[in-house]
Amino acid sequence: MTALTLPEARGRSPRRVIPGFGLTLGITIAYLSLIVLIPLAGVLLRSAGLGFDGFWHAVTSPRVLNALKLSFGAAFFAALFNAVFGLLVAWVFVRYPFPGKRVLDAAIDLPFALPTAVAGIALTALYSGNGWIGQFLEPLGIKVAFSPVGVVVALMFIGLPFVVRTVQPVLEEAEKELEEAAAVLGATRLQTVVRVILPTILPSLLTGFTLAFARGVGEYGSVIFIAGNLPMVSEIAPLLIIIKLEEFDYAGATAVATAMLVISFVMLLAINLLQAWARKK
To answer: How far is CA 60 from CA 25, 55, 66, 73, 256, in A?
Structure first.
């Protein structure tokens, strides 16, 4: 038997520092409604004014479909690359001492601090045909700037910190004794990584992937400079929304925004379900 606290012994619920469930839940719902739910509902209601036929015609035009495909496809591949290389970067920062470690660790956060336009201009200067890196890639047939590849590169740049900063604390708290025990029991390096390390960091790695993907889908400033914004080639969905707004096509803009909202919600829900499954495993 466990000892009862004084409030429990008197038949009362224990005193909590935070106010009761009803008050905190009401504040939470009110805040989320004002900041998130009501603006999103406004987008949905505005696009509903088109009717189903008008909405379907707006979001299935070849230009819109290509922009949506590029935005979500580039964000997915960039987040996938960042999940792999961000894990390696976090591993090196946690497990190995080396000169300049603190400087590089701080530099990881630069995409957070830099204005996205500055990042876009810097990447364009590097990867354009006469840039420091692009001048060596284009003779090999690799065109980065003003192509879909440039979109992926820009999203990799702005998404890397999300993975590194999510995985790094988990690696710092991981028990090295488990790895040593696996080695003593005869496990190979690959078996140690797959069966000991990855199960520990998989939930945080999926979280970092989700954050990088979500940021990449809505990224605008850094992409428009390096993408070239060619319709049907390197035009992203956020840019297409801006173009429609400048053309006073508010219904078309909200239709594209609604399509992005629905696709993003479905993909993030699937990733969160996968994340919950990984935690249970």
So the answer is: 40, 9, 9, 17, 10
